Fold each of these.
Amino acid sequence: MIETRQIKNFLVLAEQLHFGKAANLVNLTQPSLSRQLSSLEEQLGCTLISRTSRSVELTAAGKEFQRLAHGLILSIQDAVRGTQAVAQGSRGELKVGFTSYAAWTILPAVSKSYLETYPHVRLHLHEVLPADLTTLMKSGEIDVGVTVHPFDGSLRYQQLFSEPLCIALPSAHPLNQLADISVKALEGSRFILSRRDTFAPLYDSIMQACSTGGFSPEEIIYTNLQQSIINLVAEGLGVAIVPQSMRKFNHPGVSYRPIESSPEIDCGICWDPTNQNPCLLNLLALFPPAA
Amino acid sequence: MIETRQIKNFLVLAEQLHFGKAANLVNLTQPSLSRQLSSLEEQLGCTLISRTSRSVELTAAGKEFQRLAHGLILSIQDAVRGTQAVAQGSRGELKVGFTSYAAWTILPAVSKSYLETYPHVRLHLHEVLPADLTTLMKSGEIDVGVTVHPFDGSLRYQQLFSEPLCIALPSAHPLNQLADISVKALEGSRFILSRRDTFAPLYDSIMQACSTGGFSPEEIIYTNLQQSIINLVAEGLGVAIVPQSMRKFNHPGVSYRPIESSPEIDCGICWDPTNQNPCLLNLLALFPPAA
DNA sequence: TAAAAATACTCCATAGGTATTTTAT
DNA sequence: ATAAAATACCTATGGAGTATTTTTA
């Protein structure tokens, strides 16, 4: 087998065209370098350098091998640097699973801040259902979830953001005449809700807010996208309780009102602590626990 | 320095994901392979394989290095094969200097026959003056001359072809009435000739033919291209003695007549015997001395 | 004759082997 | 308890050094 040491020393020799000088440069003695070249030539089955005691010059094959060997050494150096870059997470791939709530809230900021520090990492962003997150993470299809708390003991979760809920009313709704509205005022109104199985933490918080107000919604329309909820409210089909960040949609047919001591809904990142993907570790280092 | 042995063994290990099995495949023992990998990882400064007594798996850096290392091994094999191909002359470059006389005669056949056997060699064909041939060959700008005898003691020459001269007459010339013409009949005619310094062997042969006929040309028009000589003969400006191969131009205004026991003009290849270009050696082997 | 590569031999560093320990399931 | 990797220690091969010979201009 041809060893890189032989290749490197050949390149110096091909440059110097003098065994003694080349041997000095690579910290060998002339006889050692002489034998090393012979061994290389024997392995290749051809002469690379035609030499007498008075002249040392490359053969045609020697010139070709010099050209190719130079490329080889560069490739090896590139491979070393490439591998180190992946080990440090400055290159590589990070598969991100996010829920739609994350997409409205922290996903843009998290992605932007990560890519500012690690611009050469390829991010794969997959929108997933909260219910699928654990499975996808265990099977290695995603490295990190940007989502509400996954409630899975084998995953870790780091909260990055939380916000209160607020009331979403049609602009034309009679309650809009009042300066202050409590949740209790919504009793008996038709509620627009997403089903518990699409977004349990939000559903539970809404129910909690209602029960604090002393009632539970009776007339309900279910729809599974938050954007649809806002549209249905705008059409006057009912009222809703939504995360405050929904206000950014700024729909002209909808008014938002704060909820006193509202339950909070939170969002963050979750990951499998046994996943050693350096890109994941770097992401986690960017968002360290408050502790 | 990372050695190819380490790279190859890593690839087997990355494939097997089992130190014992991989060690067997590469004729090592498990502890040796274990240490060899540690050494590789130390040189790279990162872990390639995360391992416990129960599981062996590639890290992200390990997968990247596997990908890159695979390419490296292929590149090394390519370099070996490429170098061997150049050494055997099946790839490479052959710089050919040819004179115009060779271009009308043997150059096409020589090139074709060489390229049939060595299709991957890059031929560089340069038209040169016979006078420049020796200099260009000594300076390495051409490897082989396709030409008349160079008369240079440090070069070798292998004749491949020879032909007699013939008389070229304007079709309208009075001598054309006769069935047989001897060179002597041309005495007193105006001769179209190229100067001795452009093509000495031809010039000398023509003079020899005339002196055999018992005269030497008096009225002379000099022009240095054989094609021009034919054109001038066709216009009736004079007669010429040309190599028989000029008949292939088949100019309607020119008749050709044989010359009895004409001197021959020859053509072949010449080369510097110290030039070891494998492509040259292969060419010479295709045209061995008649001996 | 002199400069430089090749050869002969000697030696030692390090790659590799053997025996054993550690580790994780 | 067992399978497999790591470690400790020993061995030996082959790469490297020193001294010398050969070669060629």
Amino acid sequence: MPGKPPAISATRSVERALTLLATVCGGQASTLAECARLTDLPASTALRLLRTLEQGEFVAREEDGGGYRAGPRMVQLGAQALGHEQLIPLCAPALQSIVGATGESAYLSVRGPGSTALYVSIVEGTHSIRHSSWVGRTVPLEGSAAGAVLLGRIPDRGYVTLRSAVEKDVTAIAAPIRRPGGIAGALSIVGPDYRLDPATAERYGLLLAREASAVARSLGVEETTGA
Amino acid sequence: MPGKPPAISATRSVERALTLLATVCGGQASTLAECARLTDLPASTALRLLRTLEQGEFVAREEDGGGYRAGPRMVQLGAQALGHEQLIPLCAPALQSIVGATGESAYLSVRGPGSTALYVSIVEGTHSIRHSSWVGRTVPLEGSAAGAVLLGRIPDRGYVTLRSAVEKDVTAIAAPIRRPGGIAGALSIVGPDYRLDPATAERYGLLLAREASAVARSLGVEETTGA
DNA sequence: ATGGTGTTTCCATTGGATGAAATTTCTGTC
DNA sequence: GACAGAAATTTCATCCAATGGAAACACCAT
């Protein structure tokens, strides 16, 4: 794959700026130097682009003028984007009752950028040792329970279990929220291997599958509360 | 305002792309033509920029290839950005109990881009006629109850009431969540004028103020769950 | 003081962004 | 089903905006 045949048109400066935006908002870099290093840009160029992002309030600087972080406009657009994901409110009760029944952290995930699953909603578990806050994080579709579900690779039993796949000593169980066209999202439980032994995993898996189809059923209704 | 003395440096193409991004994610435009018109760009330029945004999955096209909408990367960055707003989970119980006590929709807002207040969280009211979903929406700081609070213009009684200010026949009541440095956010109630008569408004205002300071108190604790 | 790192300004160069015009595709309408 | 009008897309010669090296500046640590 030498010399990717420019794929197709694209504005370089914009590409770069977007990379910077993702880098900053993803929390991977904060200072100018880090940003420049990580995106492989000359400092002067990175600075100019960051300033443009800052001007639009897509990023902001730490009060003192030190590092960069997500700006208010990003929060706004994010809130709007998440607001459109009607699955989030729909699944809240389901997640809640899953946590109630299992004590483990429960997630809702949908397809993310690239070949990833994106965790968009969580209800934290009640065990003192629990898996916490992956919201906004992505995991590869290949090799994750949620990913397998989103890809439609679901055994007849209706759920997927994966041990120590994405993270060592962590087991994930996921079930699909089906929708007319395909799969809208995945409900999943994430917790330590030792608590999710095969027998328990099966119990939880069936629970997830049940809750997920309940959500799916409520999907059919569509919104009565129009725009 | 002839020839705004270029303020300061900024990359034009990036500025334009960001404007497009905001336009699309804000739901103000969907088709290429709309985007071009709204941002005052030649169609060919708008198309090129949108394609760049699309390539980074910041925007996506409706399956059939029609209009543009927020892409998965936007959802991801949004989820991350909102995840950093620790006020959201902290205020959830407060909002809930406000709704329980009043039946009106309750909001959490913080400072948004420009001189705006941004609604980031809501618990919908229980009245059949209620104010619904402003999440992701901004209102000007000047001339809104939440804005006045965020600006620190708060009467001694501890809350602000505004009738038919942002929207006709709609009354808003807001109270500040104070933090060492200043004001972290505002809790507010939004509902129809006729239900929020002066006496009721006062009752609700005091309730809001009480809940808000309770949240503020829990802010002092800071996170034990470090990064 | 001295070197090192990060940040910022400056500016000459050039290659990337631009947008008018042409072409194709998609509407509706008669 | 053919036609007009709008929208989407491609192309390409022009030129201006983005670029990045260099140098100045601001901060530290030692």
Amino acid sequence: MDDSKTTVKHLEFDLPKLNNLTMADQVELKLREYFKKKAFKPGDLLPKELEIAASLGVSRNIVREALSRLKAFGLIETKKKRGMVLAEPDILGSFEKVLDPLIMPDSILYDIFGLRLVLEMGLADVLFMYKTEKDLQDLEKIVSKEKPDSEKFRIKNEIAFHGKLYAMTNNDTLKRFQNMLLPLFDYVVAFEKDHYKPGGISHADLLQILKTGSVEDFRNGMRIHLEPHFAWLEHIKNKEA
Amino acid sequence: MDDSKTTVKHLEFDLPKLNNLTMADQVELKLREYFKKKAFKPGDLLPKELEIAASLGVSRNIVREALSRLKAFGLIETKKKRGMVLAEPDILGSFEKVLDPLIMPDSILYDIFGLRLVLEMGLADVLFMYKTEKDLQDLEKIVSKEKPDSEKFRIKNEIAFHGKLYAMTNNDTLKRFQNMLLPLFDYVVAFEKDHYKPGGISHADLLQILKTGSVEDFRNGMRIHLEPHFAWLEHIKNKEA
DNA sequence: TACCTTTGTTATGTAGAACATAACTACAAC
DNA sequence: GTTGTAGTTATGTTCTACATAACAAAGGTA
């Protein structure tokens, strides 16, 4: 009996035991590298389900599970009869599908919050590059609606003003990115509430700089405007240390 | 005959013809909103495949395709016998799965490139907040290896230096993000090549500012360092207009 | 009593067959 | 030449069956 056991051990060593991945996982990977290897371009026709199944030696169900994933990522599109074609994936689309502040650990939320500060501090140069007269008028309209009293209106205008800044960058990806991250910011704001004090530079001030000031002025102004948030980040940093 | 046609038109209007979605798509959506509605938290046990299938009136295969997608997004994990549990998704993981410069349209690549500039310009304040003595030493080591001649070494050191900056932000999400975007930058660099001229401020200069200068100095320094890239962005802008 | 083996149950993983459906093809009829 | 009809093809969907891992409970031995 002991003999057979040791024999089995030897056999185990020969077999590739690292089979943690399910068949569907493996097929998904195989397909990904296959597409890459073949240098398929969007619109190209892909092999049929049955061909893939036969080629990889798995059932059609497995192949369909893998394809279903690629479809969910927007990597492929399927049409009856014609087959499947490689698609242009929407890079932010699949990102959006996992963004749920409720199931994200705080550490990630903090990171996202820090990312926001980096982004907003970095906007200045691009803003001065792309700003138009109409943009400034739009900002003017937003600022004019601000009321110092209401907390709800404050947040709403906060979003409107900063959102407009992102929109002015002429960078749709960046704008969409910010839009997706907004709910997370809201979530952090809840933590932040107790510490929040308005910065020394208002939206109106920023707009004025944007109109008549220099890029450098704007960078410095934005830094002061975001001061409360930076203070909170500092607060987190110290708490973790 | 004409009568019946008009009748059909009316009926069409009543029926929800927008059935472009496959069963798997619908189940995926249903499950997503179900999890959200029930306010499940990571680790919570989810219904069994057969229960879902019965509840929604579809076959188990369909349910499995939908679950397979959620699994690919990292939203759920499955364990034999125990069932499925809600997982903490890796927000960047699913992002990474669609990042392939070969199948992305140029417009997106430009956006990503702009995003990079915004990020790097925004790093300054966070850098000064988190920088340590060891970080500066690491940068020193990187800078000391730079050789002015080789083009290949230049790019390598470029990545090392800027990558280290991201790492210094103490923001893993941001760092990973940059790391994922790197291949895309490489791709853009190919376009940029013809126009590239080194900026007026070197990595060594930036390091010096980081050591003894002010945040403001660093922001301005980074802007000059990135000048060639900004020039290229301007070039794109004018070409599009 | 304590430990260990066996057996059973449960839920996911995989396979295979069958039919439904949309879209394209080609032939035929008027 | 247009219309209509049947056939073909590949995805969409369902059903059944079995494999496998993990856990639970029962039962036997020291």
